[in-house]
């Protein structure tokens, strides 16, 4: 059985450009839909957060405020409820080794911008996973977490790699707008990544070797499916 480590942000707020605090957390669909597909494919999924803290779901990812219809919100909520015990006691990132897993999978929500993007333990884990040829997958704002990985020369581990992420256009249309502290797409480009984007709010998945990235919540199922495909090809 393949094993995946799903790394979820432990943050519940994001400091915006104007200094105000924006409540956030992980995006329900990105965790629930991804986890459900991976488990249905027979994959063991372990959860991890910085410090082993219980992650917080972004409340707007369960209702119309986040563009989620009522039926889908109920479905995501019910699935997350089935993971209550696992979410209550995730593994601490500091205790995890890439050698124990076949893939690392990072869902989004704005929360990864607040902690995972600069988390040294995650950076170490991603460097290990990439060096070992393990699948590294990230989704939406979760792609910001790749920024935690620094190469031996001080550069970005994933510089020169082709990927996608939540786009600047999507951030301005349906994210935190111009009050965003930094834009994920732009920051990745600044750090040397080659960013490919699809139409706003459409599913877009980019595969570059062992690196698999999805653009937005609409890409959740397709991203997880590509990870399953990659694991099957190992």
UniProtKB/TrEMBL annotation:
Family that this chain belongs to: Belongs to the peptidase C56 family. HSP31-like subfamily.
Xref: SUPFAM superfamilies: Class I glutamine amidotransferase-like (SSF52317)
InterPro entries attached to this UniProt entry: Class_I_gatase-like (IPR029062), DJ-1/PfpI (IPR002818), Prot/Nucl_acid_deglycase (IPR050325)
Biological source species: Streptomyces scopuliridis RB72
Any single GO CC term annotated in Swiss-Prot or TrEMBL for this entry: cytoplasm
One GO MF term attached to the UniProt entry: glyoxalase III activity
Protein name: Thiazole biosynthesis protein ThiJ
The DJ-1/PfpI domain, residue ranges: 30-228
Origin: domain of life: Bacteria
GO BP field: methylglyoxal catabolic process to D-lactate via S-lactoyl-glutathione
The entry's keywords: Lyase, Stress response
């Amino acid at each position: 059985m393949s094993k995946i480590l799903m790394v979820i942000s432990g943050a519940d707020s994001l400091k915006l450009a104007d200094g105000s605090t924006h409540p956030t957390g992980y995006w329900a669909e990105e965790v629930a839909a991804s986890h459900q597909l991976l488990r249905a494919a027979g994959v063991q999924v372990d959860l991890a957060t910085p410090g082993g803290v219980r992650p917080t779901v972004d409340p707007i990812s369960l209702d119309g405020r986040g563009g989620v219809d009522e039926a889908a919100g109920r479905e995501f909520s019910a699935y997350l409820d089935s993971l209550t015990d696992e979410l209550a006691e995730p593994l601490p990132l500091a205790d995890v080794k890439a050698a124990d897993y076949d893939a690392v999978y990072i869902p989004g929500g704005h929360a990864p911008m607040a902690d995972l993007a600069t988390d040294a333990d995650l950076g170490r884990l991603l460097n290990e996973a990439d060096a070992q040829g393990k699948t590294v997958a990230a989704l939406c704002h979760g792609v910001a977490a790749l920024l935690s990985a620094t190469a031996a020369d001080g550069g970005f581990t994933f510089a020169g790699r082709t990927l996608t992420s939540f786009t600047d256009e999507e951030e301005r249309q349906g994210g935190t707008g111009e009050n965003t502290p930094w834009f994920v797409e732009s920051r990745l480009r600044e750090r040397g990544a080659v960013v490919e984007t699809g139409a706003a709010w459409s599913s877009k998945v980019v595969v570059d070797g062992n690196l698999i990235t999805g653009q937005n919540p609409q890409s959740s199922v397709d991203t997880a499916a590509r990870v399953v495909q990659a694991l099957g090809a190992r």
